[in-house]
Design a protein that fits this description.
alpha/beta; UDP-n-acetylglucosamine1-carboxyvinyl-transferase, Chain; Rossmann fold; four-stranded mixed beta sheet; 22 helices; elongated
Length: 652
């Protein structure tokens, strides 16, 4: 099970209308490439080091299956090393559960059918509804022994030893799924026979077959072909490890972010795929160009922006070559200047769900007029996209991801079961959130100026998220105390900061699930926090955490260097100040109200000393940003201070 699914799965998330989208995303590895490379590495001679392997449910099913078959695999954070079997699995009998991973069950069916063993292949309920009969029929016609364990033409399957004879061509239908052809191409070199594969009917999703051919060549097996009708494999072909191989970024996943750039202004850049990609879905950018979007492309990156003038143009496109990325265009059609048509997408019906029916249903929730055919969708956008829609995702990762784009219309959208994206892109919604231009109000000032109280109230009034950056340093200190890590142990404290299990919820602060709102105010914690704040590695780690708090509809960030370092592009920067006497008086009244002893003269002296210390510190000294609004609060009430910040923000 993937790490994403080990966490409690969310019922839904709310995407509140953002102001736009801009930024960059480094894509996870391609699912299509990852699972092909894993299988090829397992079948090859020698060890293969795989970099940038996708960590997702589908790759986890393939990894677990290969380990069950006796393949030695060493999984590290940045590298996966597979010791090849030279085409012969050690385990001759196994029960393999493959979830809903078509890129695992189809090729493994073919590979195990030419092996000498007994294997049972199954998956989730939806997998047992996805056809595999054309592949099974092609294999059985050349001597494989495969039995349907339940329904004819569908998994689960029981595979036994067979006698493979390739003296005649292998015939396979091409109009249902290109994965059937891919499965045969990957498996037949193991027979050590000359082989000819003939495709009956039109081959769908040809770019995915190109991925297969490219990767087979990387592992030493070249396939001759006559167009898309006939493929020839020479006797004696053997898979050999290329030594090291890097998985490209996911081009299908790139489509959502490129569309976000085209819809939300941009620019949005995706890193990990570009003009040198072997994935057909990079051609999604060509489709955006036809719609009028501005596209720039490099060797390993693509960048998208909205049209220079006007809105995106309606389209009528044959999208058989990019079936996964085509789903993104179905949502983009909501933003176009007329009725759009997506053609030649019949194979959507045999994916994770019946995607044609599902997309039509969910698009209608947003106000679109949709005509659904056997192999097309026709979409007329509404005058205004309906807000507050609750999008069902059918346990289909791509539906969840593409409908996130609807929020860029300026309405809120609820995505049900958002964690179904773990199938291929566990961090999708976190990455999407970073692109949304949620406004930031950065508030700083000396101790006792009221910045914390004002910041909280502003966040409440605007409905924004709130970040007390100082609390993060206190939390690091408290976590260090509780885990018995010395504050001067730089490396260990930095690790604690990076992995800090913190949650801000309902004006309370939780550390590893425990409420610590009051505990972080202890004197010993404050002293340790000051020391931790001097450690550059801790500041760097927390800066990344602080930036993750920026999400729709907006953020009020309070604390040192919020305006100057963490959010230099903040929509509004405010520097609260007040006389030392006024700040001392406020602190005095707070302590008296709590029944604590206090001396006004002592408090005034402490505040002046702290001002001098904070202004003179070498790391993040107290100072006003050049472009910050100064709010003098000596003679202002909290309400007056809040009102002024909101007035400034409304004009920002």
């Amino acid at each position: 099970m993937s790490a994403a699914n080990m966490k409690q799965r969310r019922d839904h998330i709310e995407l509140i209308a953002p102001f736009g989208a801009a930024g960059s995303v480094t894509l996870p590895g391609s699912k299509s490439i990852s699972n092909r490379v894993l299988l090829l590495a397992a079948l090859a001679e020698g060890k293969t080091e795989i970099a940038h392997l996708l960590a997702s449910d589908d790759t986890r099913y393939m990894l677990d299956a290969l380990k069950t078959l006796g393949v030695e695999i060493d999984e590290q954070t940045s590298l996966c090393t597979v010791t090849g079997t030279a085409g012969s699995f050690a385990t001759r009998q196994a029960d393999l559960f493959l979830g809903n991973a078509g890129t695992a069950i189809r090729p493994l069916t073919a590979v195990l059918a030419v092996a000498s063993g007994n294997y049972h292949l199954s998956g989730v309920a939806r997998m047992h509804e996805r056809p595999i009969g054309d592949l099974v029929e092609a294999l059985c016609a050349v001597g494989a022994t495969i039995r349907y364990a339940e329904k004819e033409g569908y998994p689960p399957l029981q595979i036994g030893p067979g006698e493979i004879d390739l003296s005649s061509p292998v015939h396979v239908r091409g109009d249902v799924s290109s994965q059937f052809l891919t499965a045969l191409l990957l498996a037949l070199p193991l027979t050590q026979q000359d082989a000819v594969i003939r495709v009956d009917g039109e081959l769908v999703s040809r770019p995915y077959v190109e991925i297969t051919l490219n990767l087979m060549a990387r592992f030493g097996v070249n396939v001759a072909r006559d167009g898309w009708r006939e493929f020839r494999l020479a006797k004696g072909s053997r898979y050999r490890s290329p030594g090291r191989i890097r998985v490209e970024g996911d081009a299908s996943g790139a489509s959502y972010f490129l569309a976000a750039g085209a819809l939300g202004g941009g620019p949005v850049r995706v890193n990990g795929v570009g003009r040198d990609s072997i994935q057909g879905d990079v051609r999604f950018s060509d489709a955006l160009v036809e719609l009028g979007a501005q596209i720039d492309i490099g060797e390993e990156w693509i960048e998208a922006q909205a049209p220079e003038h006007g809105q995106l143009k309606a389209f009528d496109l044959d999208l058989n070559h990019i079936p996964d990325a085509a789903m993104t265009l179905a949502v983009v059609a909501l933003f176009c200047n007329g009725t759009s048509k997506l053609r030649n997408i019949a194979n959507w019906r045999v994916k994770e769900t019946d995607r044609l029916a599902a997309m039509a249903s969910e698009l209608r929730k947003l106000g679109a007029l949709v005509k659904e055919g056997e192999d097309f969708l026709e979409i007329k956008p509404p005058d205004a996209i309906s807000g507050g829609a609750s999008i069902d995702t059918y346990d289909d990762h791509r539906i969840a991801m593409c409908f996130s784009l609807a929020a860029l219309s300026g309405v809120s959208v609820r995505i049900n079961d958002p964690d179904c994206v773990a199938k291929t892109y566990p961090d999708y919604f976190e990455h999407f959130a970073r692109l949304i231009e949620a406004p930031v109000i950065a508030i700083d000032g000396p101790s006792g100026s009221g910045k914390g109280t004002v910041a909280k109230r502003v966040a409440e009034v605007l409905g924004f998220h709130y970040l007390d950056s100082g609390a993060l340093y206190r939390l690091v200190a408290l976590h260090a105390q509780r885990t018995k890590v010395a504050v001067d142990d730089t490396s260990s404290v930095a690790t604690l900061a990076r992995d800090l299990p913190v949650e801000f919820r309902d004006s309370e602060i939780y550390l590893d699930g425990e409420r610590v709102t009051d505990a972080i105010r202890a004197e010993s914690v404050s002293e340790a926090a000051s020391r931790a704040a001097q450690i550059p590695e801790v500041r760097e780690a927390l800066m990344k955490r602080q930036r993750h708090f920026r999400r729709a509809p907006g953020l009020v960030a309070e604390g040192r260097d919020m305006a100057s370092v963490v959010f230099p592009e903040a929509a509004l920067k405010v520097y609260l100040t007040a006389s030392a006497e006024a700040r001392a008086d406020r602190r005095y009244k707070q302590l008296i109200e709590k029944g604590l002893d206090a001396n006004l003269a002592t408090l005034l002296r402490d505040i002046r000393q702290r001002d001098a210390r904070d202004s003179g510190r070498s790391v993040a000294p107290l100072q006003k940003s050049a472009d910050a609004q100064v709010l003098e609060t000596t003679d202002l009430s909290i309400d007056e201070g809040v009102d002024q910040v909101i007035r400034w923000f409304s004009k920002a």
